[in-house]
Records
---
Amino acid sequence: MNSNTDIKNKLQECQQDNDNWQLTTPVALIIFNRPETTAKVFAAIRQAKPPKLLVIADGPRLNHPGEAEQCAAARAIINQVDWQCEVLTNYSDVNLGCRQRVSSGLDWVFDQVETAIILEDDCLPHHSFFRYCQELLIKYDDEQRIMMISGDNFQFGRNPTEYSYYFSRYVHCWGWATWRRAWKKYDDSMELWPELKNHGWLHDLLSHQQAADFWSGVFQATYNKSNPWDLVWEYTLWLNHGLTILPQVNLVSNLGFGSGTHTTMKDSPLANMAVEPMNFPMQHPPIIERHIAADDFTEQTQYSGTRTTKTPTKPVWLSPKCKICHSDSHYFATAKVLQKYDVNYFQCSNCGFVQTEQPYWLQEAYSQAIAISDVGLVYRNNIMADITGKLLFKYFNHEAKFLDYGGGYGLFVRLMRDKGFDFYWFDRFCQNIFAQEFELQENAQANLEVITAFELFEHLTNPRQEVKEIIDLCPNILFSTELLPEDNPRPGQWWYYAPHEGQHISIYTRKSLEILASNYHLKLYTNGKSLHLLTERENLPQDMFVKLTNNKLRPPEKQSLLMRDFNQVINKKNLNTQVLNITKSIKSINITQIKQPIIIIDGVFFQLYNTGIARVWRSLLAQWASSEFAGHILVLDRANTAPQINGIRYRSIPAYDYNNTEADKQMLQKICAEEQGKLFISTYYTTPMETTSVFMAYDMIPEVLGSNLNEHMWLEKHHAIKHASAYISISENTGQDLNKCFPDIPLESITIAHCGVDPVFSPAAENEINSFKHKYGINKPYFLLGALQGYKNSILFFQAFSQLTNKQSFDIVATGAGSQLPQEWRQYTAGCTFHGLQLTDEELRLAYAGAVALVYPSKYEGFGLPVLEALACGCPVITCPNASIPEVAGEAAIYVNDDDVTGLAEALCEVQKPTVRNTLINAGLDQCKKFSWIKMAEIISQALVDATLLFLNLREINYIIFPDWTQPEDKVGLELQGVIQTLATHPEHEKITLIINARNIAAEDAEMFLASVVMNLLMESVDINNTINISIMDELGDIQWQSLLPRIYGRLILDNEDEVALDQLSGSKLESYQLDSLAQM
């Protein structure tokens, strides 16, 4: 911030004679595809000589021929800077559009500088414009109400003020200046607009219905992304009660009418307006006050046609008191509840509690007591039953009575009774299905030990009153509700608001729960996220939930109430029937649930493309969906583009943006943490920050064929390769190329998983083929091609085809992207018909089956899926022996070199012979049997599970031990010391890894304990450096144990062992060894 003295001094410096004045403010220039106007504006900037020039440029539009050259010509002008100037550029390779390009570009500008003068490529300023902007940027630096300085005057000869400028509410952006402090308020999402609209904000602001309706339509279209960035800026100023400085004379002329992206009316009165100089020293208005008359003229002549006189007023909402601490709450956000109601959310200024406005929609929201989207109901109840059982058994009287308050369908009560806990049910809104006959009775209320209330508190309309009702039943409440994260997200930024369901109307913070506890003289224990205990007990350990999380509490050993309950129900209903074998029937129920380890799969490729890689992942997910492995994976669905496959679990996340990769990495890491992901694999080169990742290599085309590796896509690919800890390749050749390009990756560490072929690709009947040919007007036998351009090398076919003496007897069919025949290739097809088709899979099958041959002269393939599909359809294949193609085609194809025109012409003749065709067809059908999606899915799933075990650093000889960490430290320490010393001095110590099971101790505690053991060994002159690996292992999932056990040489027997952990080895053939027997092994 500047002091008054600083401002006065700077203004005195600025107000010297024009000849001595110097521009010190950075200039930002926004350009696109108009080199002629860009050159004129650049000449004006060159005359001003700014010390820093920041240039923003959009990329060419794909559907505008010649635009790429125009964009390049415009950018070339910037190279003409010939004065002392720092030039910074922000050029986009793709077309972002006016709104995104300008707004993101100005975000970049104000990341670099505090103030800037901003010109577009068609806005030609008078030379005095620069001094006018600079002086006012200095004068109003600290005045928050002033948000921009414009060089435009649209009063058409009217003289609204005796001063050099006046203040306006309107944004004019044809030459302007602003501060970082102002631009940071720009909100492209216009997040508050729906609420403002619903509360009549514009009517209060403009005091005229016609003007309010006009601007409401403008801002609604802008909110819907139909209008450019400057209307968002207009909205931003109005929302923040901001003002624009407008000059008494017009300082900028717009040259772009007729050719601009948005200024297309050549006869507009605003086009090519004359400019006049600003006189210095300027005459400053004595007070900051909007010029109402000038604004009325602007509104009337340029916008709604009306005059408005009321000054802006701030939108007002009735802010309720906090339902927890009765402090003032302030407006927080608005969300669309039940897809129909615009509902306001308010946040407490004291405790942070978030509540909705009065929830008038609840009857509709509870038309189904359990939300239909609550797919995690069974999984969550299983998890909470496990946690609750351990906690009650350890810290409360587990023989007492318990109540599940808000018990839903009664599933949790049933689970707890099955575990041996005498639980009862209560719920005002939901039908009891699974716990019938165990509803809360009057005689049970006085004897309750603990009440559970899972996923209830967020539903409470009056939390203090309703929590008091629960406490009156029992002062010990174990409950779950997600606490508001520290970054204070609003609806739309955090899943737990769930406005589409309309039931979550109270969101808590830790402070709000502490206030609740204090109000009722209870103590709060919490894990800081979702699990909490209000209790009158003072002596519970503070790390109680940590122990639960780390499995330090043993499972309760109680007799199930299952048979007792069954007989009770039978007797009560006086049913004369035999006792059923209910235990057997329950065990036969297979409830699919999420299992550890969780593997995160980023489905980003489905957002970007629909090519062969998408087919690979669709096929893999379809195979996994019906297997146990489905319980281990979570697919990240980018912008709802992933295929929805039954049995696969998804999480919706935002679309990927190559211009914001760092934020994407941070988001992925946050998701991995929230979902407890142990491993990450991307369908296309995305990575989290820290979570272990596996890289899937489809090809190394850019590296082998010499593409520009500085493109965003390939930079991210190389980052993903370097980030990865394990690698999968879809062919031997691609794996070898990965190793050649990145020698640090050992070839033997790359898992090879060949692609399969979809069952849709199979031979077709003649009538099917004829129908296909008739549909697309194919009247002759035809050769089939894939994509034409680039490394696919299809020019070789056309050159060879032109040499055929009978070429006019054939049509040519090309499928896939880029299947249009280039004009310069038509010389090779004279007298023949070319068909460029986009086909469905079923049609592609018929195209393969009916072709004389698939001609596939590719210079490189990561796998070569079209070759395999053709073989499966009984289509002969002519191809080149490059990269992975021989792995796929084997002996079932005719091979020619990728530059051998004569050889290919001969192959085209050879494949016309019936005996050759039949031989190739039969060989192809046999060859394709070697490939299947089932096999690929099994290989990759195993590779992913193996990657979750990389932290163990397994070697050739791997031993495992199961210490009982509940034993005294000295006893455990001596045993560990003996094991490590024995292995470290073993003759083959460099081949050994020792795995230490840490099931019932925190990993950090185990590491610290192990460090002390190692220190003791060093003090005894036992050096374990460069000897054995030692790895600490917490609990593994069943699928990890299945992968790990075959790689363990044996278990070393200890005097004190974790019997619970050892149960996981029951049934395995793992050898057990006494420590003193190792020396002889």
---
Amino acid sequence: MFTFARDNANLQDGCVACFDLDLLGSPVDAGDGMLLRARVVQTAHVWCTNSQAANVEIAVDDRKVLLRLRRCDYYAVAQHASKVRVAWVVARPSPGAVILDATVGHAFVIANCVVRQDSTVHVAEVFSGGFCGWSQAAWRMSAMGVPSRTSWLLDDDTKLVDPESLVNACLQDCTRSGRASFLKVTHAWQLGHLDRVEVLMAREALRAEIDFGLCRSPCAMHRLQVFAPPPDDAEPTLTASFSILLRVDQVLDALGFDVQCPGIQVAEACFPAIPVQACHTGRPLSCVGAVYQVTQGLACLMRDSSDVFAQLRAVLQPEHPQLTGAQVFTDVHGRILHRLSDMPTCVCLLPASEPLLPGLPALSGNEVCAALLTKRQAPYHFAIPAGAATAWYARFPTVLLERLGWDSEFGPLPNAAGEQLHLTIRASKRPLLVPLAGMLDYLRCTLFLEQLRMLVQTSTGATVMTELQVNAHTVSVLALPATMPTAAVAQCWENASYCLALGPGVRVFSGPFPLPIDAVLGHISGQALHRAGGGPLVLSVMPEVRGGGAKDANVQLAKTRLATVLLDRGIDLHAAAVAVDKLIGARGAAACLQQVQATDLHQRWEALTAFAAGAGVTLPEGDNRATKAAVRIQRAVQRRKLHNLPTPGAKDFYIAPDIWRSVDGNPVPIIRSISQGASGVILMDAAQARKEDLALLREMKADSLCVLVLGHECPEPDRCAGKVSVSATHATTQEPHLLAACMHNVGTTEVRPKYKQQATVTVEGMTCCSFSMYRDDLADGQDWQTIAKQPVREAQQAFTAPGQDRILVHPWGRSFRADGKASLPQASDSIQFHAKVPDAQLPAVLRKSGFNHVYVLPKSWEDSRPLPEWAIVWLPGGRSEAERLALLVPHQHGLVRGRNRYGLRVPAAEFSATFKQLRPADTVPENIQVRLLFKVGPLPAKASQEELAQWAGKLGWKVKVLKMLGPAHWLVGSASSPPTTLPTFNDCPVLIAAVPSRAAAKPVVQAGRLPDLPASVPATSSQTFAGDAHTQRTLGALTCSSKAAPSVRRNSLPA
């Protein structure tokens, strides 16, 4: 085969090769094709002259080759056969194997394979019995043993739609429209129109099923208590029930509280005892105020939900036995509500026997005009003359205002004609169902309705049912006199406005149609265009609105904010102005202002770009200056925070008692100092516990003595008992912490931690892996912008086969870079993120690395360094050369990419052999784990990289030369520190200086929060050693006086 491949370098030039192959083993996915091992059965060489076969030679061979096929050829032919014939194939020799490439030229694959075995009998019009006839025919033929296939019209006619799909689409449309109501019945759901719920509920059988379902599955309600800031926080200022469909912040927002207000403390008491569930519905809230005199509570319901009736049952039947009898719902103006669809945002619940409005006649127009609002800020003050004082005192709806959170206080009634009655309306401690900002408008609407009620009570003729609206919101339904003109309605509004010193201008509409001032209600009620769905007459009072210039101001504000966003992106002024004018002209000022509300720069730009694309406006790209500046500021802030963090020491903590035990299981004491013959556990700093100190402590031969060295630097790794997490209490704050330390048993018996409550579970092995993708390394059909928007999903699809479980779990740390620096996603040229990969699936993931254009690098959990079990052989050339050489290494585990070079990942034990195979002319480098960095210099300018490594080897120090820092200085890495920092290079002194790592130091406090300032601990609590003079001189700074750890204080936190 090698001779044939060497002599026939170009097979298409007069020579055609055909091979009969036996396929061996399983295929290998090479990204753009499939690789199969095969054995040559026979070979046919055909020499062609003038398109005619001039000579044919057939040879029998038994060599093994590597066959490369297109994916479609493999799945269509080779997958179903064990023997294939390939013609017009190109043979390519390579070291160690011959590759038959059937992916180029005019190669084709032939095989005898059975794709499907069946027989079909086409039957048409066997019977004319419709569906039953077809079923009988199919059954009869099956009983006779005749194989048949029945084709239904739904399968053949593509224009027909499956009935199941039609029902599903209908339900989806009803759900999205918001006009449907789903009622849970015994074994199914009842779908009905939202406005026709009352008709469905009128059916006794359906109502019984719904009631039975509500009793079996009652609605879970929770209790919310809001307390005032100290010192008035003894009793809750508000107690409200709410459905589990709502979040606490939604309830507070519906009740008028500022969720971000630091003075409000929220205490949740679950009723029943189940946790609160979050629900992102975005639907409007219904705040129902329970105004019965016993409860005086609130309940927040989710009106547009499937269990709204269950919520109403929970409100109508609370746990208080005093609340009995029939109950009704009313709006804030006292109107009784009969329909669920008529409920506004805020309604009141009260017994039917207790009216909100007094039975006395309401206020007349003259009585309303007689009063005058003297103070426009809360609390509001009214001055009422003596002639109207009695009417206001007896007929003003004080009960209604009290239920809404406002107290009405009357002064003494005037005795003389010149005196006045003073009325004060102030907010009470209960929640304000009518907010402070809308109180004047509410009072105007209330006084307006009072006058109309007076007209209804004094009329004797025919009446017209009228639905009264203010600013298109229904406030009441009254039976107004049929002879009343619309001017009387407008006059009532003007009287209320005059009393409250508001603008009196008003116009009366009926829907969208303005009514003349002399129109009579009895005449216009007969016209269908003035009625709502054939119901009562609709009258809309539209108050006068004064002002102007708001639209121009919004346009200028939108232009300013949009231009600011574009200029921050580095776009020039002219291009920004043109883009802003186009976008505002296409979308409008209000919509553009909403797109620039986000505080995150990236989210704001992404939203604005998508918003402009929807209008057909393309925004200039700009650059990343805002993102780069934000990254620089964030790093500076992090460095400052790390610099200001207090350094924890052993003197700042007390070890938790009853955890450390000796070999016999007895607890050992916690000590703060060491003396001759002392036993126990002591926590020490790394500077105090050196290797010589630990050796001296072993010579003391204490019974049970354990030294816990705080931090991650072990002074004596060869005799260390292992790393531990020490449970300790801070000396100042008394807060519990977990400290990182290493354990050294220096006594005659071992000491081990043992917790009272322990639980052991089997943990599935997970490996930390980084996943990288590059813009210049995309496969055919891939779009970088799509990958930048969802990199994790793209990587998941690259490694996961159809129907297989997800391999990448818990991704984190997405980073976008351009030329090695932080960048926006759309401007980046590389993307990297981290994820967990199960150990059982790690080899399969690594083998696909690079071939699917996603590069994987397994890392250590401790220091995020590459795992030492794997080594990388860096290769010359580009990606295609790396893919070609990967075919020669059976034990390779995928491609690896640096910034501008490619390599093969192999097991560390196979590194030397693989390096010699792929790079025979180069010396095999030592595989050194770089943990420390050093700057070496000055060296002779003529010294090379190999000579520097050789010089370090003679010093007994294995290094990896990383790069040149100048003509005489080098940066090297090593796994250990050098034997000396001032060696000589050919009699020239050289300085070896450690280079600090950019990675953040490992935290000593693994759990728990340190105080903002370093803790000040008394001098008597420092760790010391005691003993004879020789011991004190040897231990240096460690001095004596044994003292047991003080008891843990349980007092309150210091100020």
---
Amino acid sequence: MSEANFIRLRNLLNDKESVDVLHKTASEARAVVCTEKHCLGSVLQGAKKTNNDQFKTNEQIKYEAELFLTEYYSSIKRRHSETFERRKAQVLLEIERQEGVYELTTPELVFGAKTAWRNSSRCIGRIQWSKLQIFDARHIRTASEMFEALCNHINYATNKGQIRSAITIFPPRRKGRGDFRVWNALLIRYAGYKQKDGSIIGDPSSVEFTQLCQKLGWKGNGGHFDVLPLVVSANGKDPEWFNIPSELVLEVNFKHPEYDWFEKLDLKWYALPAVSNMLFDCGGIEFPACPFNGWYMSTEIGCRNLCDPNRYNLTETIASHMKLDTTSQVTLWRDRAMLEVNKAVLYSFQKVNATIVDHHTASESFMKHLENEQKYRGGCPTDWVWVVPPLSSSLTSIFHQETVNYSLKPSYEYQLDAWKTFEWNKQSHNDKKKKTFKEIAKAVKFSAKLMGNALSKRIKCTILFASETGRSERFAGLLGDLFKTIFDVKFICMDDYDTSNMEHETLLFVITSTSGNGDPPENGRKFAEFLYEKKREFFAEPLSTKRSSFLRMDSEEARNQNEERVRPFSNISFSVFGLGSSAYPKFCNYAKYIHRLFRELGAEEVLELVLGDELGGQEKEFGIWAKRAFRTACRTFYSADEANISDAFTQNWSKSRSRLRKLDISEPISIKDGLSYISRKTIVRCKLMNRTQLQHKDSGRQTILIELDSTENPAEAVYQPGDHIAIYPENSPEAVSQVLEFVKCDGDFSADDVIQMERFEEEESKKWVPDERFPINFTLRIALQRYMDISSPPSQLMLKQLAGLSKDEKDQNYLIELSEDERKYEEWKYTFCQTLPLLLKQCPSVKLPPIVLLTQLPFLQPRFYSISSSPLSSPTRIDCTIAVVDYQLPNGGLRKGVCSNWLNTLPLGSSIPCYVRAEPNFRLPDNPKLPIIVVGPGTGLAPFRSFWRERLYNMKSGRMEMGEMHLYFGCRRKEYDYIYREELERCHDLGVLNSLRVAFSREPNQPKVLKLLILLYLFSFFFTSFLLISLSYSLFQTYVQDLLERDGKSLYELLTKHNAHFYVCGDVSMAANVSTTLQIILKKVGGMSNDEASNFLLEIGDSNRFHQDIFGLTFKAGEITEKVRMNKLKSMEKL
């Protein structure tokens, strides 16, 4: 790089050098006018003032727009995308059609406003640039609306003294329309009254504007610290003035830590420095009204405002009270007086917890910002004369740093005072303004309600969800219903979220579940990868090829050495609610991961991470979290009083305004199309070709093999071994009919009429529109049979609504008790597991409007099954191995799985709606020569059938050389439960399986064993314990982990020396036992410590060699969850 392309900059304290290359991109329109013969660096003309009647040409706007869009799309890594090209073409076309105007998108506006602050060469506090809160007020049309927005800005930014950086952006300048302007130089400023003798009471810098306000009809009190009114003009109309409500203006009364007399001077200053007369220039578009604020550096008040000779000029007054000699300059009385004023300012702000920074801290902060900018941007425009503090200048680090000043866009520009170019209407200023103010003053009362209504147009709240079962989506909807009373809410699935908007979010809530393996739900995977990539990019980590690196929960927190850097999510306030079951070892793993990465990337918690356990208290925990989140968000973004927050809580925030409309058509859309619309996935229809019972008829259990034909949509049903198929079940016609007995249609339509769900659009069109959550049409019977979940126990929220629909006092009391008592609800849910039909039968007085069913029931979710066939040997056939779920409840009732029992009775030839879900983390090794070890008791064998069939096909065709395959299977009894026995033994004989190890846990033993058990049973009475019986019985039970431990030496060799892949599929309890057994093997055979064994398993997981497919509901679901559930119930009592 030649020296012509960079400027060397030296720090005179430490002799360190840096270079600036960013100046090469400086805007020529505001180049510093210096020559070889003279320097104008200290002349204020460096900032060009913009006049109202100066409009850019279309060509100039196009040029600046293209530069800005290039910078924006480069920042989100989409510079070379089709999206960028389309957006650029759209903008250029808009500029041509609309006479030099186009509309910036919200993310573009946010990026531009933050970047303009980053580019501001005269600001010493720019290290906070990414935390700027943007209020988009481009929709505003009147002066009173401007005033309302400015009050909200002041309220948000002041934040009871904890100042927050913010900007409010009003409509842009355009030809043929007058400007929107804030006439005040600062939103809050003190008046200056010029007296007849030429003296001034108040702030001398405000005299001209004070006189203008008086001409408009404002009358001040004539004091030293009278807050001026806000004067605004909208769309070129005459200005209107408004007094700022006193409760919005935070003023700090000054005291001195040592001099008591200082307080008697009655000095004070406002806490919010909000510049309001500058122009925001972004992408060729100019915004003449864009008030923005940071917070004070103490010298701005202590030196400039209070001590400058042309301001309050208090140095002599202070020196006199200090009894200093003011007759001679050599006593440095001015310096000493100024120092004490600054001490008083800092002390007083800190005493009332108002944000302020001293000039030394500000200087050090800027030096860190300068270092960051030179490292990551190649330079930092800096006006040295402006940023060096006025007090103790040479003692600050910035004083000794060479800088270079230049102008970049987007930018904030000075402009001429509004009144100096404004063309007034003929009507008298005083009469019109007095009238307008009185009308507005009567209409506008600054209660929390008004503040909330105004703010709701601006503060955006995004709710992201990811879910396998739909519960997270339901919770997200409930949270959205609560927040939309005040905020501009958008709730969206993670899969559909445009991650380029993330850094421009303000308030974000995440509600997510976690898969059994601890991984994200399918519709949360892309978001997980985005967060991982964002972290990798920020911390300059190498791109990992490891499968699970982005979900490692034991990884270290953010690096300390980067503490000073501005983090990409630093402007986001967030909270995460996780859903899961504590029966799983990686309980709510994905929610924890999101929470941790958001913190590492700089986001600020609105609330701590909350985890809801489906084994107890999940709904209650969500309700508590939602209300706390709402309350905290209200207080964070505006000071709502308790009464109004309480009002919001008393609203029924679970119901939406919806209705059903009968359509004049005979047939609804197909089930496939309806499910595709609800799930937002491409659903295919597969034909049930065959069903085989895999267990003996006397087993007491059923496992079936179903064979599906995907010939109708082969391209949409492509799969690989290890993938899942998602099957959408059908509620039984009997259960649907039972529910319909309690439905009250009021004669408008029958259960078989075609209807449409509609919602009332309150925010935009104010009319009824189709509800996008539902298919375009359906019948009530079809909805209950194919779309809605009527088999899960109703939630407490729905129970409360059912109570309100009951006509019998006994039914009402029963339902209310269940809806309000968390412990009784959990006991009821576990003991009875009542479906909606059974509950309605128990409470027959309930009469249900159809709209309640459709809006409050969750959608019927697909069931996921491992595919048990090979796409090579059967490309249009999908086999599934399915346990028919059928178990006894604690109350003696029978619980049947909806999907497995439906598939077990469905006639052959029937159509089954489904889709393939890829499982990239449960695939055969990319290198087929590597050995594999698979463990799958019971239906955990399902995915491994696809493995051995794939290997069998490859072996017969001679396509590739394959590594060894060792299979471990477990079941109860050999003759009854050994599924795929003949197929497994044949594969073992052919060499497809190198070893076949089978464990039987309930195999009948020899008579002598039974005799031994009887003797031990009798003997145990002497010990008053059945410990020996349990122990003796376990001696004759064999599980897969027992076989693993016996083969420990060979397994150790395969894992540590031959890079074998280890697969386990089954219920959560078995998977945990297998992991424990592996650690035992690593310690016994390999001599590892506990930590070394644990780390080894983590490492092979990270390198994609340890694969788990864990599911929860099995034949022994009660055994797995009862212990965890009881512990949860005990902890709930403490909530």
